[in-house]
Each structure stands twice: as structure tokens, then as C-alpha cells.
Design a protein that fits this description.
single chain; 8 helices; 73% helix; elongated; binds iron/sulfur cluster
């Protein structure tokens, strides 16, 4: 079974996970000072903007409710792109998803360095929660809630192709 429009509870779970990762990442980065937090938040916004403007416009869920709700958001700001076949043909390389991985990796690395400089149980807890959410949490949401029911994946998805290559 593939969803034409994903149920709202899946959007709630997937976006709660993203917001939790963004929040904990921010709580770690802000320990470097406010300017670094602002840089991190600007980076997150840039990634969201890039997704809506470059990927969602060509996705099957453009204008529809995907697992993340961004198909609906994208059509508010951007015109339809060249469509699902174009999306399916696209090849992405690991280097292109490094920015997405930095969302959690950068705060984790910053946190570990800060821990070495001055040990702090709360910081250790934040790092561990962020690691679990960005690894197991993302794996669950993408594997069990999003990609499994995705019509675009059925047509062809560059991210699915990339991760399949890794398996
Ligand atoms: S499935 Fe992904 S690419 Fe497609 S609309 Fe949703 S967020 Fe955008």
C-alpha cells in the first residue's frame, strides 16, 4: 500500500523528530555563544529552503501531504518543477547529503569537544539523545513510516537509490 496523502499522525511523528533534533542541536551549539546558534539556525533554514525549492517541486507529493508535510508547503512558495520522472532520474552522491548529516553531526562533535574541555552530565545526556534520535529515530521514521508508503519511491527516488547502494 502507498499513501496518496499521508495520515496526519505520521506528519506529527516525523516533524516532532525533526524539531527535537533541531532543538537539542541548538541547545548544544548555543554553549559556544549566541552567534554560533544563529549560524546553526540559519543553516537549518537554508537546508529546509533547499529541500522545498529543489526536491519537493519535482516530487509526487508536490501539493499533497507527504510524510513530512513539505509537499503542501513547497507548493505555497514554488511552482511545480519538471515532475516525478525528473525526480526519479536524478542521481545524488554522498557528498550532497553531507549538509543534512551535519545537522546532528556538528552539534555532536561540538558537544564531545566541550565535554573533553569541561565534563557536564547534562551535555553528555543531550549528546546521547541527539545521537539516538538522529540514528534510530531517523531510521524508524524513514524506514517504517515514510519510504515504506511513498509513491515517489515506487516511481524512483534518488535518496532510496543511494541508500540501497550502501546496503
Ligand atoms: S517526500 Fe520528500 S521530496 Fe517529496 S514532497 Fe515530501 S519532503 Fe519533499
Amino acid at each position: 500500500m502507498r499513501y496518496e496523502n499521508y495520515p496526519l499522525w505520521i506528519l506529527l511523528v516525523s516533524n516532532s523528530l525533526s524539531l527535537a533534533i533541531y532543538l537539542i542541536g541548538s541547545l548544544i551549539v548555543v554553549r559556544l555563544g549566541l552567534p554560533w546558534l544563529l549560524i546553526y539556525l540559519a543553516f537549518l533554514l537554508l537546508l529546509e529552503f533547499r529541500l522545498l525549492k529543489e526536491s519537493c517541486i519535482n516530487c509526487y507529493y508536490y501539493g499533497k501531504r507527504c510524510a513530512f508535510g513539505k509537499g503542501k508547503l513547497s507548493c505555497l512558495f514554488f511552482k511545480r518543477g519538471q515532475g516525478t520522472e525528473n525526480f526519479a532520474k536524478r542521481e545524488i552522491r554522498w557528498i550532497e547529503i553531507v549538509p543534512d548529516m551535519l545537522v546532528s553531526f556538528a552539534p555532536i562533535i561540538i558537544g564531545i569537544i566541550l565535554l573533553v574541555i569541561h565534563f557536564d552530565w547534562i551535555l553528555l545526556l543531550l549528546i546521547m539523545i541527539l545521537f539516538l534520535l538522529s540514528s534510530i529515530g531517523n531510521g524508524f521514521v524513514r524506514g517504517s513510516l515514510a519510504c515504506k508508503y511513498c509513491k515517489q519511491q515506487e516511481i524512483g527516488c534518488p535518496a532510496a537509490k543511494l541508500f540501497d547502494k550502501k546496503r
